[in-house]
Amino acid sequence: MPYCKNCNKNYTEPSVQHNVSKSHLSKLNQICRFPCTPIESSMQGNINTFWLRNYRSKSIDIFFTKIEPWFYDICREQLRNCSFKSNSILKCAYIKPFDRRLKEEKSFKTRNIIITVASDLSSIWNDVKENLVREMTEFQSRGSGWSLQTILGLEVRVNRYNPLRVSSYIPLSANIVKTKSVVNVKNFDFFCFKYAVLCHNLGNQKNKERVITYKSLLEQNIYDFDCISYPVTLDDISIFEQVNKVAINVFKINRNNQISPLQVHSQKENAINLLLVTKNSVSHFCYITNLPRLLSVNTSEKDFRKKKKKFICLKCLYEFKLESQLSVHVMHDFCSFEKKRTHIKIPTKIFNRIVDHDVEDCYSFKYALLGGLLPKEEEIRSREKDFDNMNWDLLDFPVDFCLLSRFEEFNSIFVNVFGLNEKDEVVILKATSNSRDVKHVDLLFMTNNVCASRYYTITDLSKLLHPQITKDRTRPFFLCKACLTHFSSQEKFEVHHSLCSLYPPTRVELPSIENNILKFENFRHQQMIPYVIYADFECLLEKVDTCDLDPSSSYTNQIQVHTPFSFAYYIVGPDKDSCKFVTYMGKKGEDVVQIFLDFLGQEALLIEEKYKSISKIDRSSQEDRNRFNNAESCHQCGKVFSDSSDKCWDHDHMSQKGNLRFVLCKKCNFKYCKSDFIPIFLHNFTNYDCQLIAGNLGYTENDTHVIPLSEEKYISVIKNINSSIQLRFVDSYKFLAASLAELVGNLSLDQFHHLKENFPSVDLELLRRKQVFCYDYLDTYDKLKETSLPAKKDFFNRLHNKDISDEDYSFVQMVWEKFQIKSLAEFSSFYLKTDVLLLADCFQNFRSLCFSIYQLDPAWYFTIPGLAFDAMLYFTNIRLELLIDYDQVLFFEQAIIGGVSQCCLRYCEANNKYMGRHFNSSLPSSFISYLDCNGLYSWSMSLHLPTSNFKWLDKDELQYFNCKENILNIDEKFNKEKGFFFEITIDYPDHLHDSHQDLPFLPISQIPPNAKQRKLLLTLNRKEKYICHYKTLQTAIANGLVLVQVHRGISFTQSDWLKKFVDYNTIIGPRKLSSVDNTSISKPTIIDRGPNHLT
């Protein structure tokens, strides 16, 4: 179990979670009395962690100023040993202003950066500060409601930078071997570097791949190899070059299987060129005999066959036709590591739509920007001094386009940066809203396979995008830079801009007109998953010794560590014989969680074998054959069978019988496949069990992935066992949002099938209730050996801060005697077994009920909202048309306001004859009424809702609806089959202000005066271009508001398609779903477009 020396305790959660926990941060500030304290060191000093404590700094800028010298000291001290990688984590405490009891620690991280003796520490520190401040700002701007209370400190993590080491023989790929340009010595020791260098002196000698060939050269001592150690690092090569007065260039094979430079020191012909090949953790040096031929792997087969001599720059690998061109290229030092001019291949179709300035890569941004400000290329160098007033000092060259905000603000300019995807389509990398007040410059950012990058001036963004928008070269359009949506007229663009500018720039991807129908398609979810597992852990609540805490600052006092000591799981199969209960009691020092995962892995493989044994189709039944032959359409999708070849005989693969289940089309039959996962349900998994098992899952790209709820909590964890089966850990509380005791109380005795199966001769009344356990008393393995029931006081629960009742303790005594329990270990196993079986019975009952009502198995889903959404689609059989017009999406998004709560009159006193002696007859009588309306959500969802045919209103329709009588009579005219959303200007007459001041109509979302965050406000002001539903507008007009103008509108077909689903869940459903909070099935749903993209 991991141990934290700062907290002086073991912990069960993953290290990442422990390091950001409240107890860990509190402990750091207790023990770290100096501004900079080393708090952790591992791997023989290769990994070190330092804590820069905050001492009374309220501002983040002041805090950074104070710790800056300490950051430099850490870096300089580490550089005395070697280069290193470093990242920083800023830890802060946040509080909810409206409820100061709600506190939480947040962490903001930077990426790892490589720091060498040549690094500019001040520049690195500025990047760290800027990145952390940006993360803090983004967190607070998300509308979370958190307010910064205090800055806890900065954690600086330092990892020794170990360059590639080389060792044994690795075969080359076929495309490199066929070039015949590399000698790969078949050595089986660590001296591949030695053989590769000596190969340079072999000339035309044969058998260069054999180690024996180099015996004579080694005896001649041509080079001094004693100056380096083996395996050889890149730093060792520099030492070897200095001692032996030679030049060595090293190339590598990148991820795209192309050659790129790794370390180039010389462009001379007599330089020794080596190829570094890697495989897993092993690397190997080879000698390059002909570099141009080797580089042919970077080009096409056609170029490879050309035998014309090529002149290549070894640093950027750009090919020149003439040697003189290469000489000029090298002479001007275009390819030094600080100043290089890299050749990047530009697609032919955009070549004439951008300008490539002949400058070094690192300064390409500056000249690309000037190219966007000046009309002609030749003016840039002649007028470069005119732009000295621009503050270029705010930039670090080469420029990261993500860090341009300060430069843009200071110089009153907006820089839009675009790139190309794999299909050479233009995509947004960084863009701003389409403001006309500030000058915009459009740049193209491109990289190549050797990690070089350049900026180019885009002369006309519309022309650049024209090929991917339309094939008609004569067709003009107007482009929105914030979303790359195009319009046929300036007027339409202006209307779009008014809404699009309110959102962050993003590339829009909407459904196509052929694929814009939302309907039920998860037919496979209508079959029960054959195998489901229910599991639980029991933990020792080990006490934690703590010292006195500082009352002058916030802290968390950790009192216990939860150490799993046993687990149990119950496999529910398709029949009684396939059900299986497993329990395990761990020993001191064992990793119980890992044993649990190993057990489940073996169970998964056994279940996979059962999945593979598919029962054969049985066509012997005449009734089944008649049913199959007479079927005219697919049972699922309703598609009419055109011929018999599209008709499929569907049967249950897990059943012993192969009888006909459904007659399906080929497409639906394919969807009706078995599950490729085994769901494992743990009650309250997200908040508790997830913390226990997350650290043992072995996070690799192809092994485990999670569905996060936050950085520390997961909705589900999915563990791949192999390519065809996986374990899916799911929280049953996400479906049954109640304690296990409450769920058990909702079931009758005849519903505890699995409990009765495992306790056949026991009175179920003793087992059907949630058992009582002495959680806090059990804090060591030794107590498991105790042979008597603990006293009543030992059942005190520190979490709820209360004792158990006399009735509960009497029940525990009866259970202890009835089941002849002999030790606390047995009592723990009994408690764990009943918990798991009770959970299995509750959830299996829930599965059966859902399947009988909605024909869906909840075990396919992660949470009940996913189940509810599919249930709605299947129950209503609705086909909803999705929006394919981005302007319509923006239009409807502006109509989303949210709920409002307002109390204008904070105190009211009644005066009437029913108040007895408090009644004052000399004053007018007054009453206080309490009004409450139930079921508002279900009522609103039962109204007529949009389904299809979303269309913009034309001029004639807009003119028609500019009359208030026509708006009030919409339902009568269209018989409620057609609905509308309007963009309006409406007046609030002065004579209504007094009567409407408690709850004005038409709330609006905007930033109040002297505030920074957008809020929902109830105002009596005139509303300009306000978007609302026609029912809302009718209510406002009926209560005296004056319609001024209807600017735009959308019509759609509507119906009360959701009413029967809501009514069923409101009236009929609760009678059946007594074991679940049924209101969650029919709660309102809205899909967020997200901060960065819309799909």
UniProtKB/TrEMBL annotation:
A family per Pfam:
Endonuclease_7
Q: Which Gene3D superfamilies match?
A: His-Me finger endonucleases (3.40.1800.10)
- GO BP terms in the entry: DNA biosynthetic process
GO CC terms for this protein? Answer: DNA polymerase complex
Xref: InterPro entries? DNA/RNA_pol_sf, Endonuclease_7, Endonuclease_7_sf, His-Me_finger_sf, RNaseH-like_sf
Q: What is this protein called?
A: DNA-directed DNA polymerase
> What species is given as this protein's source?
Cacopsylla melanoneura
What taxonomic ancestry is recorded? Eukaryota, Metazoa, Ecdysozoa, Arthropoda, Hexapoda
